[in-house]
Inverse folding.
C-alpha cells in the first residue's frame, strides 16, 4: 500500500515540480526507469509467491538501475550506445513479460 | 478479501491473500525505503514521459544519433534547395515564355488588323477626305477614276471606298456606259463618292495641285468637291480570298 502510494506521490511530484534532470543523466533515465519497472514486477511476483523481502527488493532495484545505466554508459563510451540501449531494453522487457506471466498464473491460475 | 484482519503474514494462503497482506500499510523502516524508491521511480517516470513529449526526444538523444539526425536534415535541406532552384528556373522560364507569347500574340493581332484594313476585310474609320465627283456630261471614265485613286494612294490614303465598293490593291476599273464605271464588277453611277482615310490636308492638297485630279476632271466637264473631315467611315467590305496557289514561304 505504501509502495503504491509512493508511486502515485512520485508521479504527481514529477508532474507538478517538473524537476530538472541533469544533462549527463538524461540518456540514462529511460533505461533506469525500465530497469526499475523490472524490479517492481519482480517484487510483485515475489510478494504473490510469499518470498518477498524488503532488503532484496531495495538491493535489486538499485542494482538494476545502476547496472542498466552502467551498460548504457559503457556503450556510449564504446560508440555502440544505441545498440546496447536496445539490447538492455529487450532483455528487461523479456524479464518484465515473464514476471507478469508468473503474476498472472499466481492470481488467476492461467 | 482485501480487509482480512485475522490473517497474519506467515499464515496467509493463496496469492490473493498475500497480495492483500502486502497492500496493508505497515510502518517499518524497510517499507519506508521501498516507498522512497517508488517515489523516485514515479518522479523519474513522469519526468521522462514529460521531457519526451516536450523535446521530441532530441534532448535525450545521444551524440551519434544527433549527428545522424543532423546529417539527415542537412541532406534533406540540400535536396529541397536543389528542388527549389529547379522549380524557380521552371517558373522563370514559364513566366518568360508567357510574356513572350503574349507579346507575340499582341504583335500578331496588330499586324492582322493592319493587313485586314489593307485587304479590305474590316471596316475602317479615321480622318480623311470625302470627294463627290459629279459628272453631268458623262465623260468621267475608268482612267480618270484610277488617276484619282492613284493620287490618293500617293498622298497616303490607307483605306479607300468608291460608292459601295472597297478599293484594294487588286481593284479593277472598267469603262461602261456613260455616267457609270464598273469597279470590281460593281457598276457605280455618277455622282461618284470617294471616301479616303489618311492625312486630310495632304490628300486634298494632292488632289488640288495644278494639273492634278480636280483640274483634269474639270477639263472633262465634271466637278470634284473635296471635303476634309476628321471622321471618315469606310464601311464597304471585300471578302477575303484564300490564295489558291501561293503559300507563305517559311
Amino acid at each position: 500500500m505504501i509502495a503504491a502510494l509512493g508511486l502515485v506521490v512520485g508521479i504527481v511530484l514529477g508532474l507538478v515540480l517538473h524537476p530538472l534532470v541533469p544533462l549527463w543523466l538524461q540518456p540514462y533515465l529511460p533505461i533506469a526507469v525500465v530497469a526499475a519497472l523490472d524490479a517492481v514486477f519482480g517484487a510483485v511476483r515475489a510478494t504473490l509467491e510469499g518470498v518477498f523481502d524488503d532488503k532484496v527488493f531495495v538491493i535489486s532495484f538499485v542494482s538494476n538501475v545502476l547496472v542498466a545505466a552502467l551498460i548504457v554508459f559503457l556503450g556510449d563510451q564504446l560508440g555502440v550506445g544505441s545498440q546496447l540501449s536496445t539490447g538492455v531494453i529487450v532483455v528487461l522487457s523479456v524479464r518484465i513479460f515473464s514476471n507478469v506471466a508468473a503474476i498472472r498464473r499466481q492470481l488467476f491460475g492461467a | 478479501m482485501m480487509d482480512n484482519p485475522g490473517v497474519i503474514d506467515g499464515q496467509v494462503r493463496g496469492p490473493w491473500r498475500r497480495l492483500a497482506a502486502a497492500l496493508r500499510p505497515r510502518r517499518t523502516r524497510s517499507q519506508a525505503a521501498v516507498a522512497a524508491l517508488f517515489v523516485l521511480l514515479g518522479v523519474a517516470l513522469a519526468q521522462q514521459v514529460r521531457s519526451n513529449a516536450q523535446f521530441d526526444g532530441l534532448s535525450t538523444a545521444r551524440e551519434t544519433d544527433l549527428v545522424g539526425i543532423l546529417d539527415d536534415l542537412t541532406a534533406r535541406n540540400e535536396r529541397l534547395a536543389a528542388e527549389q532552384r529547379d522549380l524557380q528556373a521552371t517558373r522563370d522560364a514559364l513566366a518568360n515564355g508567357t510574356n513572350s507569347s503574349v507579346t507575340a500574340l499582341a504583335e500578331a493581332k496588330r499586324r492582322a488588323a493592319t493587313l485586314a484594313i489593307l485587304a479590305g476585310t474590316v471596316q475602317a474609320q479615321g480622318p480623311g477626305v470625302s470627294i463627290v465627283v459629279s459628272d453631268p456630261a458623262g465623260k468621267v471614265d475608268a482612267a480618270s477614276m484610277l488617276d484619282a485613286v492613284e493620287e490618293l494612294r500617293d498622298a497616303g490614303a490607307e483605306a479607300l471606298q468608291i460608292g459601295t465598293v472597297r478599293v484594294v490593291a487588286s481593284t479593277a476599273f472598267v469603262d461602261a456606259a456613260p455616267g457609270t464605271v464598273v469597279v470590281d464588277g460593281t457598276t457605280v453611277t455618277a455622282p461618284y463618292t470617294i471616301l479616303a482615310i489618311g492625312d486630310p490636308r495632304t490628300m486634298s492638297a494632292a488632289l488640288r495641285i495644278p494639273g492634278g485630279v480636280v483640274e483634269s476632271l474639270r477639263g472633262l466637264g465634271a466637278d470634284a468637291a473635296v471635303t476634309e473631315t476628321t471622321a471618315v467611315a469606310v464601311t464597304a467590305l471585300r471578302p477575303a480570298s484564300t490564295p489558291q496557289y501561293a503559300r507563305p514561304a517559311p
In short: Residues 81-108 of chain A form the longest helix (28 residues). Chain A has four helices and no strands. The helical segments of chain A are 2-17, 29-49, 54-78, 81-108.
